Amino acid sequence: MNDITISGTQSTPEIRSDWAAGQLCLRGDSYPENSYELFNQVFEWLEQFLAQQPDRPLSLEITLLYLNTSSIKVLMDIFDLLEAAHDQGKPVGVNWYYDERNERVAELAEEFREDCTFPFAIIPGQPS
Prior knowledge:
The longest helix is centred in the middle third of the chain and has 19 residues, at 69-87. A hairpin with a 7-residue loop joins strand 1 (5-6) and strand 2. The chain has helices spanning 35-52, 69-87, 103-114, and strands spanning 5-6, 14-18, 23-30, 58-67, 92-98, 120-124. It has a six-stranded mixed sheet, with helices on one face. It is of the alpha/beta class. The chain is globular. The chain has three helices and six strands.
């Protein structure tokens, strides 16, 4: 599977995947006109990784500053996919980084975490 590299814009996040590291990163603002069109590659990549690498850990690294409603729905679908993988014993997890001055993003991440049983960390600051 090819890795994803999508540059961020004013209204779309940077999206990068690293198959070898088992990592998918979303960074920036996310309020595109069509979230499902933007994130279709992300779903395909995740589904392929989970199918072809069942024993390798998968980490979703999120540093999103603002999300519109359709982006929130897409994330819910991504987390549902990760939850199903976790239920099958696959090692998946989320690290959600947030700016400490933006409590709303931390609250949103907490709302997502409440519905997930897989490891889900909410971390102040930027990823290292």
